[in-house]
Amino acid sequence: MKVLKLIILSIAILANLSTLNANSENGVAKVMKVRGKVFYSQTKKPLAKGDWVPEGAKITTKARSFVKLLFIDKSNLTLGANSEVEVEQFPKKKAGIINLINGQLRSKVSKNYLQIDKKKSKLFIKTKTAAMGVRGTDFQVNYNPANNNTTLITFEGAVAMGSLSSFKKTRFLQDRLEKVVSSPTSVMVRQGQLSGVMPNVDSKPIEPVKINKQQLKALEANDGSKTSSNGDKNKSEKKQMSRNIIPPGMDSSKFSGAGGTEIMGQMAKADSNLKVPTSQAPTLTVTKADPKGTMKEGGFVDTNNALYIPPPKNAPVDPMTNEVIVPVQMGSFDKETGEYKNDFYVVNENGDMIPKNKPQITVNRNPASGGTKPNIMPEEPMNIFNPDGEKPLGNPMLPPVITDDSRPVNDGPDILKNTMDDRDQMLDQTNTTSTNRTRVKVILDRQ
Rg of the chain over CA atoms, in angstroms? Predict the structure, then answer.
């Protein structure tokens, strides 16, 4: 009896070992790290650290979840939250094909991948509308099936991007994908740049643009595993936004306790250093992408909607950092994750910016006259791509109006003029305070 049990136990152990060997032999990627709800799309079986993922597998992640895979070529891929990916093909002697069905992936690809021809791509990442050929780089891809937008951000190296939006089929061989990413309409997206295929803008990839440098750093530091807490989100929604009247590049401490003459001198010095584009119109406008798909650099990327939000065409440039100064109501980003956020507008997948009841923007000071602070509230909805129907921009802190050309909107104030008006008001209040003090002193002397 004991001998029989020993034989059965031995058979079971051998069967388990055989299964493990088979999994490692058939698998093309190993699960290195997993958090939250991550499972095979077909069977709903959860993935665990150490599992081998076979060719043809589809993987789904839920909210606040991610999985990191190490492929047989030593390249790694991190699938972010609320995403789905398919390991479509991963042969040992040809470039692999990864299909991003939804969401976000981050990948670092080994440069010496299986010693494949250096002139060809070592890995293909594709979505329904775009194909990317990789030859050794660090990059991020986002795809939103609601608008069929695909965006690509390159952190290191270069990635070739071509459009698949005109193709009806969804399955491609390596040779066909190589032709797509090498076609005359494809683009090469280099370090710090963004490109994308956005069918509502152009069937071809947009010309690569540099995104906001601070958002780029935050996105690069997040491999997809970081998430922002709800507490931080609520805090950001409740806090009062403010705008500083001191111009970019000025030392605010020099204004503390200064009299009107001193402030005038500092302002004159700052004004002489302000770098303003010569083509700046007296209003704040944004133009639609030109026929070549070119957009103004320095904007934000909305990774959830796979959108690029360009800054106003005539936005001023910070003389210290040489970066475009983006109006606060165009949004910002989460410093932890790099994700786009907007406290004043809801941006949907179509690029519509819909006002929401969020905190008021006030000038960052209490008026010396005891008056109330000016409020700047969102106006009616607008679209970042749709140029139809020019509408005036009521305040330079509001999102830009999209137009077909560079004609200014007549009713909108210039962002620099608005800043100057605020500073003039501050001077008037300073002078008024000084005058009142003099009057009090004269009355006391007479008594």
Answer: 28
